[in-house]
Amino acid sequence: MPTPIQPGLLHIDGKWVPARSGKTFETTNPATEEVITTVAEGGADDVDAAVQAARKAFDSGPWPKLPASERGKMVWKLAELIEANLDDMGERETLDTGKTYFDSKKIEIPFAAQVFRYYAGWAGKAHGETLPVRDDAFTFTLREPIGVVGAITPWNFPFLLAAWKIAPALAMGNTMVLKPASITPLTAIRFAELTVEAGLPPGVFNLVTGGGSSAGMALVKHPGVNKIAFTGSTEVGKMVMVEAAKSMKRVTLELGGKSPNIVFADADLEAAARGALTGIFYNKGEVCAAGSRLFVEKKVHSEFMDRLLSKVDALKVGDPRDKATRMGPVVSKGQMESVLSYIESGKKEGAKLVAGGERVDIGTGKGYFVKPTIFDGVRNDMKIAREEIFGPVLSTIPFDDFDSGVKQGNETIYGLAAAVWTRDVTKAIKAARAIKAGTVWINAYNLFDPALPFGGYKESGFGRELGAYALEQYTETKSVWMDLTK
User: Fold this and answer.
1) DSSP 420-435
2) Into how many domains does the chain fold?
3) Are residues 73 and 164 in the same domain?
4) Quick one: which of 63, 71, 229, 308 has the most CB atoms within 10 Å?
């Protein structure tokens, strides 16, 4: 059994403090429905204290003025500490979210460490330019940190998506306040401890745990915050955008998705079937870029579905600590109820349920487990094809030809990701160009790298995380003109 996790406090100005209200809340293990620990419930007063600490650290502290190479060393040190504490971080992530040990310890926490290492290398390389526009002037640009960054992160990838924001923000010389999702705060608390161990000056990184409507919106509204980096639902993202506009904060939004996964008749159907499973059932379908709409060309529909259904039966749902488990529980009782309600909606609208469709008892009588679920014969106008379910539910939609497949794939308010499966290189490139999404995989799904930007079109948000593109989101560009005529 893991070591009991101690109650969590807020981390403000280098100190561990309770919420000013004295309130706490419980975080629960979705596999057992047991309370893991209690966590401080921060509110507007705590957010104000954290922002003031970050503001002071930026305006008069050493962090923005450090040589870029020194900042880079500290960000690199954070990568090393994440790797050194991999088991602990992975354990917390699994306890909080229900994701398997394989997902947390082998994929996501190591990827987070890679992100810190990648941006450590960028610390001294984000520079301005000299622009010889006139002979009688010396003109150049400076790249400067924005200031105080407020990061609000979701519950599906609690630490990984926080890392996507923290690493570039710190590498560029900003200070931060992180507000993690209230139901999955444990890795954020552990990371705050690692920032102390790494030697970050007080106030550079601050952590306020609490509710989104209280602590989260207080961070968005605070006049001392220069930029908000938000990942979450489109509905909440619109609210963030409205509130941030009142003080003209910079905003990046990585929001929902209903991503098309398009299988053409000339594809490697075996590889495409494996990719379809990965696309929707990785992390129990709680993935913003999940390939939740599977388009299959009609001439291979029957053969493809046979391959797909033979594979879904092999996905073991169970205890996320068991090495044989491929799918743990969804994150909470509320999320489980939401997923099951969408399944009922699919049945009522006439979609054909061909796999799953119900809650699972793994023998304990506890846990929020849902069978991997596949609907066939889905229409693009059905609720299960239009709305983001955020669970292990796949909608399969047949199509006639290239134009039909791409057209239906684009018939969504979202544009976060997509995939196409074909052996025809020309067809693949044409499809990738035609699909309105921030990421298009060809003959693959759910592959990421710290160097590749990620973000959405349409109501999936704007701005990009990862890669050199993310540096634009955490810096200001200043033009300098020196007159040489005098």
Assistant:
1) EE-S-HHHHHHHHHHS
2) 2
3) yes
4) 229
The tokens for 251 are 């905003």
Q: 288 an active-site residue?
A: yes
Q: Are 218 and 44 in contact (CB under 8 A)?
A: yes
Name the one residue in this structure whose structure tokens are 């909080």: 96
Residues 301 and 437 in one domain: yes
Mark whether 110 and 250 lie in a shared domain. Answer: yes
Q: How high is the mean pLDDT of the chain?
A: 97
Please tell me which residue in 41, 91, 286, 288 is annotated as part of the active site: 288
Is residue 128 a contact partner of residue 143, using CB atoms and an 8 Å limit?
Answer: yes
Within a domain: residue 426? Answer: yes
Condensed to tens digits (0 to 9), the pLDDT of residues 385-436 reads 999 999 999 999 999 999 999 999 999 999 999 999 999 999 999 999 999 9
DSSP one-letter string for 274-309: HHHHHHHHGGGG--TT---EEEEEGGGHHHHHHHHH
Find out whether 389 and 414 touch, Cβ atoms under 8 Å: no
Q: Using CA atoms, how far apart are residues 373 and 444, in angstroms rounded to an integer?
A: 21
For residues 251 and 266, membership in a common domain is answered with no
User: What is the number of other CB atoms lying within 10 angstroms of the CB of residue 345?
Assistant: 15
User: How distant, in Å, are the alpha carbons of 32, 248, 320, 346 from that of 96?
Assistant: 11, 35, 11, 29
The secondary structure element, H or E, covering residue 92 is helix 86-97
Q: For residue 454, tell me if it sits in a domain.
A: no
Q: Are the beta carbons of 249 and 390 closer than 8 angstroms?
A: no
DSSP letters for 218-258: HHHH-TT--EEEEES-HHHHHHHHHHHHTTT-EEEEE----
Q: pLDDT per residue over 120-170, tens digit each?
A: 999 999 899 999 999 999 999 999 999 999 999 999 999 999 999 999 999
What SS3 state is found at 482?
A: strand
**Co-location of 210 and 311 in the same domain:** no
Q: Are 178 and 267 part of one and the same domain? A: no
412 and 467 part of one domain: no
478 forms beta bridges with 142
Domain that holds residue 407: 260-449
Q: Which sign, positive or negative, has the C-alpha torsion 197, 27, 285, 389?
A: negative
- Are 419 and 280 in a shared domain? yes
Write out pLDDT tens, residues 45-84: 999 999 999 999 999 999 999 999 999 999 999 999 999 9
Q: Is residue 2 part of a domain?
A: no
Give residue 107's identity as a one-letter amino acid code: I
Out of 41, 91, 254, 388, pick the active-site residue.
Answer: 254
